[in-house]
Amino acid sequence: MPTAKAASSPPSPAGQSDPDPKPALRRQARAARAAAFAADGEAAARAVCRFVLERGLVPAGATVGGYWPVGSELDCRPLVLALHDRGCWCALPVVTGAGQPLRFRLWQPSDGLVTGLAGTLEPPEGTPEILPEVLLVPLLGFDDAGHRLGQGGGYYDRTLAVMRGSGDRVPAIGLAFAAQQVPALPAQDHDQRLDWVITETGARHFSVVE
For the whole model, what pTM was predicted? Predict the structure, then answer.
């Protein structure tokens, strides 16, 4: 009797590309991140803070772009507060519109925040803007080559493209849980790679060549 062959997916019709795999990857990544956050998000945030400071990834007095965490994103606030105490100028991102790069407004621990266009908390209009020299980046997933899976709005890719296009190599430090790592992610030419990813288990550096 002939051996039965495993069923295979039918080929895509001529002229049609395969469906975008990123929506499914985002669903899986959100579930992995939520589980890691629920397990011990506070301890992970403290560990990430410690690894960044021990590695000296942010020079004293540097201007740093952080973020205010949403949902199960790794909480970078302990790190931003520690950097502020070490003399860094800290800023939070501001969404000015779809298709636009992020802007960054100065933030200090005593400052209040408002809800921005994307529903995230940000410094209010009129707060001085600064240009970060180091960027702390939230993410859904990352791979062995430093590719990042984001929410799909493209804000950080556009922002890093503008910053790096000026000739300065702005380090992008992804903050994540170890469970968010995957072997490989689909990447396009406009996708900006990370220089570092810091998780609760350690620091990972990527040799990024632009």
Answer: 0.88
Amino acid code (one letter) for 37: F
- Domain annotation for the chain: domains and CATH numbers: 33-131+146-205 (3.40.50.10420)
Cβ neighbors of 65 (< 8 A, separation 6 or more) are 91, 92, 93, 102, 104, 132, 134, 135, 136
Measured CA to CA in angstroms, residue 78 lies from 59, 92, 97 at distances of 17, 14, 28
- Helix (H) or strand (E) holding 33, with range, is helix 22-55
Q: Model confidence over 54-97: pLDDT tens digits?
A: 999 999 999 999 999 999 999 999 999 999 999 999 999 999 99
